[in-house]
Amino acid sequence: MCMYPNSFPFSEPFHILKKSMKFVQFSLILCQLLVLVVFDSIPAGHGLDLSRFAKDEGPPASTASDFVCQPCRQGLMNLADVIFIPSEKSIHTFNHTVRGARQPITLQHFVNPQDLSFDLVTVSSAHVVGHGHFYAEHSWWPGYSWQVAVCPKCRQHVGWVFQAITPEEGTADRFYGLIFSHLSHNATGDTSLYMTRRNVL
Q1: pTM of the predicted model over 0.90
Q2: What's domain 67-199's architecture?
């Protein structure tokens, strides 16, 4: 005698259980959609305050700055703030042609006591954070003490703050020397490696 599946004694409970599981899955999907609709309909400033669950990612990247930090895109400097402050300790000086700028900006090449080299652009204002103490030793600008400058968002070393030891009339009391290879052009996303170098005689 052949026994078909429908005639198996446990077939009916099995089908009921299977239908119940499908109903539960459908109910869960419906609840998820309902939650999304409810939360999307809550006006800003009303309902649940979920701000305490938000991840702190530091200050937002500035879109107004001409140059930003390469890793995190935080705004650091503007072309309007570039000032050329010559140093007798620079190895050489050269210009960089920046896309969108009316004239190239002048950079100075330095080597520190650890034999590390840097191309610096000097600016009167920069969106950086000073880190540590000011030191007068080994300053690339005699008469100025220096302090390490870092990005306010990712804390990468981006240059130095230079502070006049004895302020004098006609000279800057403070300026910033930023490492040009650590900057990226905000408008194009280019780094200094893609810009044209022209030596200054």
Answers
A1: no
A2: Beta Complex (2.170)
